[in-house]
Amino acid sequence: FDRNALNFSGGPGALPAVVLAETRQAIQAVPGVGLSILGISHRSDWFAELITQTERDLRALLKLPDSYAVLLLQGGATLQFSMIPMLLLRGSGCTAEYLRTGYWSAKSIPPARLEGEVRVLWDGERQGDGFRRLPTADELECSSAAAYLHYVSNETVEGVQFQTIPGRDGVKRVCDMSSDFLSRPFDPERFDLVYAHAQKNLGPAGVTLVVIRRALLDQVPAGIPEILDYRAHLQARSIYNTPPVMAIYVVSRVLRWLREEIGGLEPMDALNRRKADGLYGVIDRHPDVYAGWANPADRSRMNVVFRLPTPEREADFLRRAESAGFSGLKGHRSLGGIRASIYNGMTLAAVERLVEFMDDFAHNGH
Ligand code: PMP
User: Fold this and answer.
1) CA-based Rg of the chain, rounded to a whole angstrom?
2) Which ipTM did the prediction report?
3) Long-range residue pairs from 323-327, CB within 8 A, at least 24 positions apart, any chain
4) Residues facing 122 on adjacent strands
5) What distance in Å separates the CA atoms of residue 266 and residue 195, rounded to the nearest whole number?
6) Torsion angle (degrees, nearest 10) of CA 109, 110, 116, 121
7) Is 101 labelled a binding residue?
8) How far, in Å, is the centroid of ligand 1 from the Cα of 178?
9) Percentages helix, strand, coil for the chain, rounded to the nearest 5?
10) Active-site residue flag, 46
11) Dihedral (CA of 164, 102, 195, 21) sign
12) 315, 302, 283, 305: which is closest to 342 by C-alpha?
């Protein structure tokens, strides 16, 4: 195991070793082109073909109908927190509904309030013990007149993940899938807009994928700067201005890997479940040492968040983990504790190694 293989960082996350090797080579010279990926024009035919291929692979993985467009944008998931209400809330006269289930969904709400009325349908913080659990379907009173429902499928910081799709069919459903996109299959037709930045399951930071129902673009409010208007990016085939060429190249390699080496989203899901089961298993085996953060029914298969009895024990755990070769295990600065992020690029073998380390620590770490 090298350091990359044992990188449990919350994001940017670890990428598959074959993709790192291809990228290393592409920085020298892209095979068949002979130029470094860092110095290839975004106006070249080669790059246009790369965009086409990337979109084709994504469509194949998601079984995406043609009634949806795929866009590669910049500004991270955070820019989507503004672009979405600009498109769907501004001037609509309707109220947008938001689920506040953790650190990231909380961040998505203030930019929406700038564009119109927002109703927080569920506030996980009000449950009293931090964002540990997600609402069940009967706890949500979704209005049929809402402009849309926005939620985050996997809360990266707290490690809670929806295992069902909330909301009401007939109301537009918008989902931030930044930290679990392509980790499992989903039916795209139950969504109107799905977005995910690359730096968890897809590649490096710099590019954000948006899957949008084309019909949403029929009525765009006036006064949106062109760069924030999805139609401009659609017309320009995601080359509206200079895109992050290298980030998109890496995403294209990851999609290829997912299709050809993993075999698509079903086998990826099966693998991710085994990884998560291994880690939650060791946590549950040692309740005197480890305490999982999330309510068991809402446990994330991407971010396994847990605590030890004292800050000193946590510091000791992190120190020992670091010297055993693991990195990125420190919890998010807003929550503390430990977080093992097990995105698509993390191998089962590496997770098994962490499980073994945690078993040993529980037995001998006193
Ligand atoms: N949404 C989620 C679920 C995230 O995990 C993050 C960042 N980790 C963001 C949004 C913000 O993404 P960005 O830094 O790309 O703007």
Assistant:
1) 21
2) 0.99
3) 324/357, 325/1, 325/3, 325/6, 326/6, 326/8, 326/354, 326/357, 327/3, 327/6, 327/7, 327/8, 327/9
4) 99
5) 20
6) 30
7) no
8) 6
9) 45, 15, 40
10) no
11) negative
12) 302
Amino acid at 336: G
Residue 276 pLDDT class (50, 70, 90 cuts): very high
The structure's pTM equals: 0.98
What are the extents of the domains in the chain? 4-15+263-364, 19-262
DSSP strand pairing (193-197 vs 173-176): parallel
Catalytic residue status for 257: no
The residue written with tokens 């690359």 in the block is: 198
**Residue 73: both structure tokens together:** 């944008």
176 is catalytic: yes
What residue spans of the chain are helical by DSSP H? 17-28, 45-62, 76-88, 103-113, 230-235, 245-257, 265-285, 311-323, 348-364
Distance 33 CA to ligand 1 centre (A): 34
* Encoded amino acid at 353, one letter: R
Fold of the CATH domain 4-15+263-364: Aspartate Aminotransferase, domain 1 (3.90.1150)
List all residues whose CB is within 6 A of at least one atom of ligand 1.
11, 76-78, 104, 152, 156, 176, 178-179, 197
Give tens-digit pLDDT for 123-182. 999 988 889 999 999 999 999 999 999 999 999 999 999 999 999 999 999 999 999 999
356 CA → ligand 1 middle, Å? 30
Asked, as a colleague might, if the bond just before 309 is cis with ω within 30 of 0, I would say no
- In whole angstroms, how far apart are CA 300 and each of 146, 159, 318? 28, 5, 21
Return the closest-CA partner of residue 290 out of 317, 264, 265, 268: 317
- Over residues 170-226, the pLDDT tens digits come to 999 999 999 999 999 999 999 999 999 999 999 999 999 999 999 999 999 999 999
Secondary structure, 3-state, 307-319: ECCCHHHHHHHHH
* 67 pLDDT above the threshold of 80: yes
Q: Token digits for 265? A: 């989203």
With respect to CATH, is domain 19-262 assigned 3.40.640.10?
A: yes
CA angle 26, 32, 33 (to 5 degrees): 70
**Contact assessment for residue 40 and residue 34, using Cβ atoms and an 8 Å cutoff:** no
